[in-house]
């Protein structure tokens, strides 16, 4: 990985442990609203629905509001749990409010950021909601490592749309030839970056065997040292 000057990271599922922090946020939501459902049962239904809604969101097929409401509405309906639309909307708001209260990071986050910070300019490109991403980074004490933080909402489109990557490169005063993207989503992060001419490292933390063998991948953040 020669001539790299700029390293762009995804945030959720790459540095910030979204699954663990999200589970804890929902635990807090369920307690606040006295939801008489098994949290484990809810999360089992919710997670694949949330995954599908985020795919639709990246593809501009649902709005942010439809995602926030729909993933909850569909989950409660699947579990035959009677709940009002007003309460679903309140839960949607509370969930995002509570997310930054939890700040679990993947193993090696601080070590790899300290290592890279002395060698490269570091940036974030995230599809996550703008109102919570900065709070997550501040509460987990990683915000200061990054020069530019680019959210899809600030661009108006989501990764893997090339506009996001080109906007990020312009903002960072970087060039596609001296930049690399590191993320956990093959479509949004890796293919999106490669399609605009950037290099990429796939964070294959779950050892996804269906991933493209030609893509540089790591199974832990510390492995990035082998390439940068």
Automatic annotation (TrEMBL):
UniProt cross-references to CDD domains, sorted A to Z: HAD_Neu5Ac-Pase_like
InterPro entries: HAD-like_sf, HAD-SF_hydro_IA, HAD-SF_hydro_IA_YjjG/PynA, HAD_2, HAD_sf, PGP-like_dom2, Pyrimidine_5'-ntase_YjjG
Pfam annotation, one family: HAD_2
GO MF annotation: an example: 5'-nucleotidase activity
Membrane spanning stretches: none
PANTHER family named in the record: PTHR47478, PYRIMIDINE 5'-NUCLEOTIDASE YJJG (PTHR47478:SF1)
Official protein name in the record: Noncanonical pyrimidine nucleotidase, YjjG family
Source organism (scientific name): Polaribacter butkevichii
